[in-house]
Amino acid sequence: MRIEIFKKKEKEQFNQFIEEKYGFELKGQIIKQSQDKLRIFTGNLSEHELSVLTGTVRVETAGLYLATWDTTNEEKKEESIRLSFDASFLAKNATKNTIDLNDEQVKTWFQGNDIIIDLDESLKTNDKSIPHTSQSLAPNTFILLKYKDEMVGCGKLTSEKDKILNFVPKERRIKNL
């Protein structure tokens, strides 16, 4: 498999979406690993050096698994970016599309279960400096989940707006708490 480094325009487009959607900035090279899997590389290699390396030797992967991005549907391209479990930790300073979880919800989350949330109550307990609007927390959108000022993952708010679908990888789930 050959990796492809995002060109400047692609990287700017992706970063702009991340900033508009979540309110934080990504730093590093963005690498397309397959048709829909993105990775982020923050090592000491420049874009040129990384390109030369991947052209010289067989490189299977580089960097941290960042996101899944389905670019086949141009109309829903921006809605289809789902940050990976690990990448959500890069979003520590996110200011948009975040929801705070309580103790019971975070336990349920790390067990790999979807969670039911009173969205109105959650927004009341969030930091007032973080903007939340009904538009930014629209149904069928991906959101970041926080617990005591730490990101704990990315979920999808369902059309009912009270259920968050869980994307914690099976190997990372906690069996008994």
Characterization of this structure:
With 177 residues, this protein is α+β, with helices and mostly antiparallel strands. The protein is 23% helix and 24% strand. The termini are far apart. The relative contact order is 0.15. Mean pLDDT is 79; it is low at 124-135.
Short description:
The protein is of the alpha+beta class and 177 residues long. The protein is built from four helices and ten strands.
Keywords:
Nuclear Transport Factor 2, Chain: A, 5-stranded antiparallel beta sheet, 177 residues, alpha+beta
Secondary-structure map:
Elements: E1 4-5, H1 8-22, E2 29-32, E3 37-41, H2 47-56, E4 64-69, E5 81-83, E6 98-100, H3 103-110, E7 115-116, H4 119-125, E8 141-147, E9 150-157, E10 163-165
Parallel strand pairs: 6-8
Antiparallel strand pairs: 1-2, 2-3, 3-4, 4-5, 7-10, 8-9, 9-10
DSSP strand (E) fraction?
15-25%
Mean pLDDT: 79
Q: Structural class, judged by helices and strands?
A: alpha+beta
Number of helices: 4
Helix content: 10-25%
Give the SSE order as H and E letters.
EHEEHEEEHEHEEE
- Give the low-pLDDT segments: 124-135
End-to-end CA span? 40 Å
Largest sheet: 5 strands, antiparallel
Rg over alpha carbons: 17 Å
Please state the overall shape, judged from the principal axes of the Cα atoms.
Answer: elongated
The strand line-up of the biggest sheet is: 1-2-3-4-5
- How many strand elements? 10
Number of domains: 2
